[in-house]
Write a structure and sequence with these properties.
single chain, mainly alpha, MgtE N-terminal fold, CBS-domain, Tetracycline Repressor, domain 2, three-stranded mixed sheet, 20 helices, 6% strand, extended, transmembrane, membrane, Magnesium transporter
Length: 443
């Protein structure tokens, strides 16, 4: 598939004035692949390529584009193009892109929806974009709890949605009653009440549940979909395996981008000023932490002037602490994301990581101390750096556990800012330990 996307990129760039070749290439790919290809070409060529794409394909492609890419493209379209684009938009697609649309465009889309889709949109927009209620699938098999098995079987002769392996039962007020799996329905006698076939193990997802937790619940259920209900047990829709896989994909992508201080909605060819501003903030934060570490080094300027070897070995101390801390930080961030870390097990986890840090600190302190002794022929210098390594790796383990937990409590993404804070802490701790011991023992 990567080769096909690469081929489409070549077509969009070199055959930008050939609608036939562009649409032929697009017909062989999914909308998300086409969106990826569009985001991989400069903005001027992207606008030209968009003009050559068939109207029937545009909305699906737009929905799959990143938020910033979508904004940049819509900014180039006039009202008539936008109205044509949103002619067939449904509630799920509009909810997907509404955060990147100005209110004026949302109003245009809503006016072209039928009453049912507008109702679905109003139902979903009240929920945050990180909970299930926002992303409900409304294509599901629903039956009254009072019908018989033979009547339920007739439902299956209609168009069965993807990821469907059960019928959802409701009472007269629309409240969810239970689920009946297809295998039990097929084995039942036609005259049996469908309510007698309810699977007692079938659970539901509350609309306020976070997407990642809902995906975990669905995975544990071994089902292809679970019903979603509100506070009153009204059946709103379902959360299926396709949505769960999309949740994990976006979560993984967000974590990758956040490690560099970027947003997963960022456009590869965003305007230079916008990209520079986004990255500049991250660089500014890093610069402040670097100056802070330098300020602590400056406190030992006299020591460095007298023992030049300390300056040569400082990067070793900083590097060892940084690597040890990032290993712990990664482990804790993953644990937080999976819900594995609680108040009850935090103390045990911290104790374990400190022991790991102490063991690694002693081991590598001996190795680095021996290398330093051979290099500079100074036993005392070898002892100084060895002790500093032990202190810094233990501090790195402590920081690697506490920093992400604290940031999570403050509702700050630890994957985004944890590494910056951790690096600052380990650098300062390592430099102060190394230069402080050097001042005491070498001068």
């Amino acid at each position: 598939m990567h080769s096909q996307v690469a081929a489409l990129i070549e077509t969009l760039i070199h055959d930008e004035h050939s609608p036939e070749s562009i649409n032929k290439a697009i017909s062989e790919l999914t909308p998300d692949d086409v969106a990826l290809a569009l985001e991989s070409i400069p903005l001027t060529q992207r606008r030209q390529a968009w003009a050559n794409i068939k109207q029937a394909n545009r909305l699906d492609i737009l929905v799959e584009m990143r938020g910033e890419s979508r904004q940049l493209l819509l900014r180039e379209l006039d009202d008539s193009e936008i109205e044509a684009l949103f002619t067939d938009v449904d509630a799920e697609d509009l909810l997907e892109i509404t955060d990147s649309l100005p209110d004026r465009l949302v109003d245009i889309a809503l006016k072209q929806m039928d009453n049912k889709q507008r109702e679905y949109y109003q139902q979903g927009i009240v929920y945050n974009d990180d909970v299930v209620g926002r992303w409900i699938d409304h294509e599901l098999l629903i039956a009254s709890q009072s019908i018989r098995a033979s009547e339920a079987l007739r439902l299956l002769k209609k168009n069965t949605p993807d990821y469907t392996d059960m019928v959802y039962l409701v009472n007269r007020t629309g409240r969810w009653v239970g689920c009946v799996k297809f295998d039990r329905l097929f084995k039942a006698q036609g005259h049996e009440p469908i309510s007698s076939l309810i699977d007692e193990d079938c659970s539901f997802i509350h609309a306020d549940t976070e997407l990642t937790k809902a995906a975990e619940q669905l995975e544990r259920s071994s089902l292809s979909a679970l019903p979603v209900v509100d506070d009153n047990q009204i059946l709103l829709g379902r959360f299926h395996a396709g949505l769960a896989m999309e949740t994990w994909r976006l979560e993984h992508e967000a974590q990758q981008m956040s490690t560099a201080g970027l947003n997963e909605e960022s456009d590869l060819f965003a305007p230079v000023k916008r990209s520079a501003a986004t990255r500049g903030i991250w660089l500014g934060i890093n610069l402040l932490t670097a100056f802070l570490a330098s300020a602590f080094i400056g406190l030992f300027e006299a020591t460095l002037q007298q023992v030049v070897a300390l300056a040569v070995l400082m990067p070793v101390v900083a590097s060892m602490g940084g690597i040890a801390g990032s290993q712990t930080l990664t482990l804790i961030v993953r644990g937080l994301a999976l819900g594995q870390i609680t108040r009850s097990n935090l103390k045990s986890l911290l104790s374990k990581e400190l022991k790991v840090g102490g063991l690694n600190g002693i081991l590598w302190a001996i190795v680095i101390g021996v290398v330093t002794l051979w290099w500079f022929e100074s036993p005392m210098l070898g002892m100084v750096i060895g002790l500093a390594i032990i202190v810094n790796i233990i501090m790195a383990a402590l920081s690697g556990v506490l920093i992400p937990v604290l940031l999570d409590k403050l509702r700050i993404d630890p994957a985004l800012s944890g590494s910056v804070i951790l690096t600052t802490v380990t650098d300062i701790a390592g430099f102060v330990a190394f230069l402080g011991l050097g001042t005491l023992l070498l001068i």
